[in-house]
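Why does residue order matter? Because the sequence determines the fold. Keep that principle in mind as you read this record.
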Amino acid sequence: MKNIILLSFVLLSLIAATGNAQTTKKEIKSIESVKVEAWYFHLSTRCVTCKAVEAEAKKNLETLYGEKVSFKAVNLEDDANKAIVEKLKISGQTLLIVKGNKQINLTNEGFLYARNNPEKFKSIIKEKVDGLLK
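Structure:
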């Protein structure tokens, strides 16, 4: 079963979705702050699950934290985003929660639950972000 989930994740990663996001130097510097930030890195071509991960993560973070936690979707294939991708050492589709030097990767949870069990995904996000806000 784990092999099927892993294979599904790999396949979904290869089929990722589009988005227009450009990262500025200001955004890169904000990573070095103590603010909690959520980053969703994606490819240009995206599947339904990829889009659901982004939409659910964004909605949950806005609902739970308002402006306390920022959310940014970043296209990995856009050269303008190369600096932030390198800074955070991103190599593929990733949902990352960042506070200073601490990073929590929620990619697997996003792909497992965003479409099929969004409430569980929301509770995982809450647990992880609450831990960073303390």
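DSSP finds six helices and four strands in the chain.
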